[in-house]
Amino acid sequence: MPKNKTHSGTKKRIKVTGSGKLTHAGAGKRHNLEKKSTKMTRRMDGAKEIAPADAPRIRRLLGI
Length: 64
Description:
Blueprint (H helix, E strand, L loop, with lengths): L7 H6 E3 L5 E4 L12 H6 L3 E3 L5 H8 L2
Antiparallel strand pairs: 1-2, 2-3
């Protein structure tokens, strides 16, 4: 059997933590930042955890 290939778009966007959780960068921090309040852009910082309902599908894409 051939090996499964990792989905290259997914591997660029999602990281796996040491405990096995999936994290991604939140949306909305790419452009139009002058319009958004500082409070809002601070809230957009950091990694967000993937929703449990989406995790199995993403794990399949990553080949985990």
